[in-house]
């Protein structure tokens, strides 16, 4: 995608000489991808690690599959599904980390290297710039997670097929792995958690536009301080619980989560029926979060406008 | 029409006054040099003009208020803040792609033609270019933008003399067309003396001197006085006197050329000479 002048080719959606609207935004997002190659390199590396690890287990796979097939049906499917879920979790976690560090640097790096003076010499508004930066964790990263995970899982599926062919068990994966369902769960989970975590990215961009140095500390310490004060003053942990819920809770809100008494290896989300978009859209937490995210972003836009190079 | 018009332009940082009520009017088609010591308020004034900083007072650039309309303004205004601001990670070709993508007045073919005259490779990243090449690259971008106002804040800082000369030559020969306006600040004042049409000295947030270069040439004269005529020359009230190789050099403001001619060798003072005198006096006050 980023090989030289071909980006000017007619295939690129390029609404002519349109002064207002999409072109600055489109190019600003591309600019982000040019600058931050870790956005796609890190998850690709994670996928590579997953495939390598899975490749190592493929020798044992026929034996593992025999064991799995001896289980009762729920556990059987869970056992087969486990490595595929693991792959998704590893890639998602990698991209989550990438998103955090991307946001912390997004408005700080350009001030640190003074290039903000160049970017501001072009007719691109601060709003367009900040929105193109928050577009990355809210849209680009989830989309990348989805594509990379699906492709990785598909390669795993092929690898397992090859590994199981001699033992005649190849068909069992295709038969028992709920592939389309897993993809749907992933897609829905990614959309809901991106929306749920929006205030996190808004906050990180705000810190990035404001802090002179040590963006990570400024992003984290205030929240720890408030939690600590609450704990010391009232011996309660509501604030910390709220933070944890915000970081990890998208799943609880978006799905009906069945608590599984027996369930070591049973995946939390099992059936499409567990999707609960209505519950998600009606949860006040979502909307409060989005309002807070918008406030953080407005703050970041204002700071982008007034703050010069460091 | 005035390209830049300011009335009572003020700016304070914490407790320091960076701009102390500046009135300014720059007509279109002029090349204005702003000269001042470090911390005089030059960059603050330019930042206000470019919409990079807020200010008090009235300011219109090409009819717009810079602080509230930076995005629109930047379609008609270009600036080089200093040579080190191009993002270091970007390859030249992406830089061209990006500017072409966001700037309605950017002529990519023109920029490519300028770059063809240099040794800059399209695949190089900015970090791998020399300082001089970065300046050439930035200039190529700027010159390919059909802007009405170009602002240069120390555009040649840290460049060697060859690049500096080349920079101003390109600017005059390939860019300036008599309708565009250029505002330059630099410490290498004498190099731009022949480039400017107007001159302004800024000191401690105020305008210390403002004149066109025609006025400059008509008003100021330097005389290297013949040994016996020093007293006669001093009687004409020079602004300043200094000694060069044992001979006195006197600077005069608004004294008739006819009167000074017989007293010694006449010459045009440099901007730097006048700067030292004007700001030196202010300093004593």
In summary, what is this structure?
The complex is a heterodimer of chains A (310) and B (285). Chain A is an all-alpha fold.
Which key terms come to mind for this protein?
heterodimer; A: about 300 residues; mainly alpha; B: about 280 residues; alpha/beta; six-stranded mixed β-sheet; four-stranded antiparallel β-sheet; 13 strands
What does this protein look like?
The complex is a heterodimer of chains A (310) and B (285). Chain A has 310 residues and is mostly helical. In chain A, α2 runs antiparallel to α4 (73-106) and α7 (126-164) packs across α10. The longest helix of chain A is centred in the middle third of the chain and has 39 residues, at 126-164. Chain A is built from 15 helices and no strands. Chain B is α/β, with parallel strands linked by helices. Chain B is 32% helix and 29% strand. In chain B, the strands form three sheets. Chain B has a six-stranded mixed sheet with strand order 5-6-7-3-8-9, sandwiched between helices. Chain B has a four-stranded antiparallel sheet with strand order 11-12-10-13. Chain B has a three-stranded antiparallel sheet with strand order 2-1-4, with helices on one face. In chain B, a hairpin with a 2-residue loop joins β11 (240-244) and β12. In chain B, α4 (108-116) runs antiparallel to α5 and α5 packs parallel to α6 (161-175). Chain B is globular, with a radius of gyration of 21 Å. The mean pLDDT of chain B is 89. At the A-B interface, α1 and α6 of A face α2, β5 and α3 of B.
The largest interface is:
A-B, 37 and 39 residues
Which consecutive residue ranges of chain A, at least 5 long each, have pLDDT under 50?
A: 1-18, 259-268
Are there runs of chain B of 5+ residues with pLDDT below 50, and where? none
Strand-residue proportion of chain B:
25-35%
Give the terminus-to-terminus CA distance of chain A: 32 Å
Order of helices and strands of chain B: EEEHEHEHHHEHEEEHEHEEHEH
Q: What is the average per-residue confidence, as pLDDT of chain A, rounded to a whole number?
A: 84
Quaternary form: heterodimer
What is the spatial order of strands in the main beta sheet of chain B? 5-6-7-3-8-9
In round numbers, the mean pLDDT of chain B is 89
Counting DSSP E segments of at least 2 residues, the number of strands of chain A comes to 0
Overall geometry of chain B comes to globular
* Strand/helix succession of chain A: HHHHHHHHHHHHHHH
* Content of β-strand of chain A: under 5%
General shape of chain A: globular
Q: Specify the number of helices of chain A.
A: 15
What is the overall number of helices of chain B? 10
């Amino acid at each position: 995608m980023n090989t030289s002048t071909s980006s000017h080719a007619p295939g690129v959606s390029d609404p002519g000489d349109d002064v207002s609207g999409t072109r600055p935004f489109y190019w600003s997002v591309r600019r982000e991808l040019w600058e931050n190659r870790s956005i796609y390199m890190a998850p690709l590396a994670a996928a590579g690690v997953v495939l390598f690890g899975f490749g190592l287990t493929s020798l044992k796979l026929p034996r593992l599959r025999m064991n799995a097939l001896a289980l009762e049906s729920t556990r059987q499917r869970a056992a087969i599904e486990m490595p595929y879920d693991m792959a998704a979790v590893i890639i998602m976690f990698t991209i989550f980390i990438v998103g955090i560090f991307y946001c912390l640097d997004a408005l700080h790096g350009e001030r640190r290297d003074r290039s903000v003076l160049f970017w501001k010499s072009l007719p691109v508004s601060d709003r367009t710039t900040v929105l193109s930066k928050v577009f990355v964790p809210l849209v680009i990263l989830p989309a990348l997670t989805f594509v990379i995970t699906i492709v990785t899982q598909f390669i795993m599926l092929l690898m397992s097929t090859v590994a199981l062919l001699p033992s005649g068990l190849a068909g069992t994966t295709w038969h028992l792995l709920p592939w389309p369902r897993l993809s749907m769960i992933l897609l829905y989970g990614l959309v809901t958690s991106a929306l749920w975590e929006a205030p996190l990215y808004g906050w990180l961009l705000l810190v990035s536009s404001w802090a002179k140095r040590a963006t990570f500390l400024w992003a984290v310490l205030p929240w720890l301080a408030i939690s600590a004060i609450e704990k010391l003053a009232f011996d309660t942990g509501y604030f910390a619980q709220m933070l944890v819920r915000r970081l990890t809770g998208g799943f609880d809100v978006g799905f009906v989560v069945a608590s599984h008494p027996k369930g070591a290896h049973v995946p939390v989300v099992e059936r499409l029926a567990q999707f609960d978009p209505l519950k998600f859209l009606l949860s006040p937490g979502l909307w409060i979060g989005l309002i807070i995210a918008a406030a953080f972003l407005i703050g970041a836009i204002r700071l982008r406008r007034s703050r010069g190079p460091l | 029409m005035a390209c830049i018009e300011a009335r009572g332009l003020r700016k304070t940082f914490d407790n320091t006054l960076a701009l102390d009520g500046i009135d300014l009017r720059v007509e279109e088609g002029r090349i204005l040099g702003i000269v001042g010591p470090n911390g005089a308020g030059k960059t603050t004034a330019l930042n206000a003009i470019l919409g990079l900083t807020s200010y008090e007072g009235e300011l219109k650039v090409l009819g717009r208020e810079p602080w509230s309309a930076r995005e629109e303004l930047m379609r008609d205004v270009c600036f080089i803040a200093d040579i080190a601001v191009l993002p270091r990670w970007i390859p030249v070709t992406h830089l061209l792609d990006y500017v072409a993508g966001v700037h309605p007045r950017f002529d990519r073919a023109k920029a490519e033609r300028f770059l063809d005259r240099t040794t800059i490779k399209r695949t190089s990243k900015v970090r791998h270019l020399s300082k001089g090449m970065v300046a050439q690259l930035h200039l190529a971008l700027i010159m390919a933008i059909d802007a009405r106002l170009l602002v240069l804040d120390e555009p040649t800082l840290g460049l060697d003399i060859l690049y500096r000369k080349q920079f101003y030559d390109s600017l005059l020969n390939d860019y300036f067309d008599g309708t565009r306006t250029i505002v330059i600040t630099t410490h290498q004042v004498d190099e731009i003396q022949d480039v400017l049409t107007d001159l302004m000295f800024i000191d401690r947030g105020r305008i210390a001197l403002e004149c066109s270069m025609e006025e400059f040439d008509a008003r100021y004269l330097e005389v290297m006085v013949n040994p016996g005529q020093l007293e006669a020359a001093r009687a004409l009230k020079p602004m300043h006197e200094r000694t060069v190789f044992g001979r006195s050099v006197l600077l005069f403001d608004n004294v008739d050329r006819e009167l000074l001619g017989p007293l010694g060798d006449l010459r045009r003072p440099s901007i730097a000479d006048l700067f030292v005198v004007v700001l030196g006096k202010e300093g004593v006050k």
